[in-house]
Amino acid sequence: MNPYLAPGLVVVVLLTVAIGAYGLRFARTTSDFLVASRSVSPSWNAAAISGEYLSAASFLGVAGLVLRYGVDVLWYPVGFAAGYLALLLFVAAPLRRSGAFTLPDFCQVRLRSTALRRLATAFVLFIGCLYMLPQLQGAGLTFATLTGGSYAWGALVVAVVVTANVAFGGMRAITFVQAFQYWLKLTALAVPIIFLILQWQADGRPEVTPPPGAVFPAATTVVIQQDAVLDGVRPVKEGQELHFAAGAPVPEVSTVDAESGDDWLLPDKGGLFSTYSLILATFLGTMGLPHVLVRFYTNPDGASARRTTLVVLAMVGLFYLLPTMYGVLGRIYTPQLLMTGNTDAVVLLLPEAALGDGHLGRLLGALVTAGALAAFLSTSSGLLTSVAGVIFTDVLRPGRSGSIRDFRIATLLAASVPTGLALYVSDMDVSRVVGLAFAVAASSFCPLLVLGIWWRRLTDVGAIAGLIAGGGAAMAAVLLTVLGPPLSGWHAEVVGQPAAWTVPLAFLVMVTVSLATGRRVPPDVGATMLRLHAPEALRT
Amino acid sequence: MAVDDPPPRPRVTVVLADAASRRGAADRGSTDLTEQTPIGEALVKGLMRAQLALALRLALVVAAALGTLPLLFAVAPAVGAVKVFGVHLPWLLLGVLSFPFLVLIGALYVRWAERNEQDFTALIRRPER
């Protein structure tokens, strides 16, 4: 095992707790806990939003997908970044001006409906849990892959650290922690990639897709994960060890879905429905993620919310340049992952595989692992803060006398469900679940926010109907994908990537039902629109 | 008491009238806004329309530039096979160039949206112009 690994991970956890404790000195009131008293500067806030956003799916998953499927999955990072552009164009400034702290708050401010507020709360809790589960799973799998320890311990350690940090420091502390973790994650990918590219140059720039097929760069032992057939002829058993010499061709394993040669290098001819569905889900889903919206409240006004979003877009875009290169270099240096199917580990294993197990390779390996830990910690902290905030205000309903103790109870409640699920469900596909969370967010909160902000004639009944139709359909598709039997043919595409039909459905139902219930338009919609759109300077 | 009044009276009335008329001119727009007069409604609608048109135009630019790529690669596979500096075009477009492009669009939006708001504020503050 890598001797630098344990110290690196301990340093990250200690720094997280220490920065959280430092932030605690400033967190005195409930308002400090929930919204950092709205006094966070734009650059800190932007780094914090980016740190919170770049999850395990971004840090590990994108590189793994690129390694496996090639150019077609580049839409994931593009969409994850472009989501912030959609947020900037349609939502950022008006949402900040609305004064809403959570999505249910926004429903209340805009449509004055308690029923809608409850429904929105249910969606926030569903999306929050759906998004947090893969973070904890990713943490468990990383621990298991690197240390040989148990999956449950990895998931549990991250869950406990995050819960303690949120419960004792609240969002004020989280802001500093998240900002630190953005820079840690960027460094953890940017520094090793320099050495990796230099190594690739020194190796004589081996081709990523050599015409005869991928070869092992060094002697490798592969443990087969499932009964399968190699290259269509040679059957192998689970647990069987295969030895390959350096330069031997990499066989194709029948149970592992991956692309090779030109399929990997060039865009697919078919699959347009899935591609556009993915684009729609990621472009429009970001604005509906509960932990993203909550951060906008910490900006002092609408104009600074816009500027913060722009900085976030730049920071997130800068980060996403890196995982693609890990996926590409993984084709050369870690082709055995294509045989085991454990492609999410490419970022973690690449430094040692390419640079050897000397001090440099091991140090860089520990660095990327520390970055991965930061990814789990920051995203789950942000999710937990926002889900706990919603439980605090909408489920516990402490009224004006809400105390910090109640917020801590809410945090424990919010953490218990995904932690329990993560301990018992370990075989769900990490990056797929994250994509589904985006699809649910895009088919529920995106139409609600966009129509709520820009369309005066939206009614509470219309919003409820749209949420149930679009969001409900996406939820059903998620549950079917995760729990149901494997599907094939066009069913699989329609259910596995539902956004292309659930997003238009949600918009359509919301508009039609609102027009049919036109008399229910809130009488004060003019005043609300003024508040959402007029610059703060005009307020008296 | 007529005897006590005369000295301060002209000054007081003039000052009050002056201040009232000045404030009225400056605040008429804000009052229109907060009291939801038809003029106020129209002003807010105008701002919303300007901001929405700006956002939709830029969204359309992104949809035209990025959104048509999957279709283009599917319809004309030759485009996907073009190499620039030894890298296939789709990798370069999606993996590298799309990010600065998104930031550029975002920067343009922030600039123009702020200008819309400044115009709106100027309109409210100086309704006589």
Automatic annotation (TrEMBL), chain A:
<feature type="transmembrane region" description="Helical">
    <location>
        <begin position="309"/>
        <end position="329"/>
    </location>
</feature>
<feature type="transmembrane region" description="Helical">
    <location>
        <begin position="153"/>
        <end position="170"/>
    </location>
</feature>
<feature type="transmembrane region" description="Helical">
    <location>
        <begin position="363"/>
        <end position="395"/>
    </location>
</feature>
<dbReference type="GO" id="GO:0015293">
    <property type="term" value="F:symporter activity"/>
</dbReference>
<feature type="transmembrane region" description="Helical">
    <location>
        <begin position="495"/>
        <end position="516"/>
    </location>
</feature>
<keyword id="KW-1003">Cell membrane</keyword>
<dbReference type="InterPro" id="IPR050277">
    <property type="entry name" value="Sodium:Solute_Symporter"/>
</dbReference>
<keyword id="KW-0813">Transport</keyword>
<dbReference type="GO" id="GO:0005886">
    <property type="term" value="C:plasma membrane"/>
</dbReference>
<feature type="transmembrane region" description="Helical">
    <location>
        <begin position="182"/>
        <end position="202"/>
    </location>
</feature>
<keyword id="KW-0472">Membrane</keyword>
<feature type="transmembrane region" description="Helical">
    <location>
        <begin position="432"/>
        <end position="454"/>
    </location>
</feature>
<keyword id="KW-1133">Transmembrane helix</keyword>
<feature type="transmembrane region" description="Helical">
    <location>
        <begin position="115"/>
        <end position="133"/>
    </location>
</feature>
<feature type="transmembrane region" description="Helical">
    <location>
        <begin position="273"/>
        <end position="297"/>
    </location>
</feature>
<feature type="transmembrane region" description="Helical">
    <location>
        <begin position="6"/>
        <end position="24"/>
    </location>
</feature>
<feature type="transmembrane region" description="Helical">
    <location>
        <begin position="73"/>
        <end position="95"/>
    </location>
</feature>
<dbReference type="GO" id="GO:0015123">
    <property type="term" value="F:acetate transmembrane transporter activity"/>
</dbReference>
<feature type="transmembrane region" description="Helical">
    <location>
        <begin position="461"/>
        <end position="483"/>
    </location>
</feature>
<dbReference type="InterPro" id="IPR001734">
    <property type="entry name" value="Na/solute_symporter"/>
</dbReference>
<dbReference type="GO" id="GO:0006847">
    <property type="term" value="P:plasma membrane acetate transport"/>
</dbReference>
<keyword id="KW-0769">Symport</keyword>
UniProtKB/TrEMBL annotation, chain B:
<keyword id="KW-0472">Membrane</keyword>
<keyword id="KW-0812">Transmembrane</keyword>
<keyword id="KW-1133">Transmembrane helix</keyword>
<dbReference type="Pfam" id="PF04341">
    <property type="entry name" value="DUF485"/>
</dbReference>
<protein>
    <submittedName>
        <fullName>Uncharacterized membrane protein, DUF485 family</fullName>
    </submittedName>
</protein>
<feature type="transmembrane region" description="Helical">
    <location>
        <begin position="91"/>
        <end position="110"/>
    </location>
</feature>
<dbReference type="InterPro" id="IPR007436">
    <property type="entry name" value="DUF485"/>
</dbReference>
<feature type="transmembrane region" description="Helical">
    <location>
        <begin position="54"/>
        <end position="79"/>
    </location>
</feature>
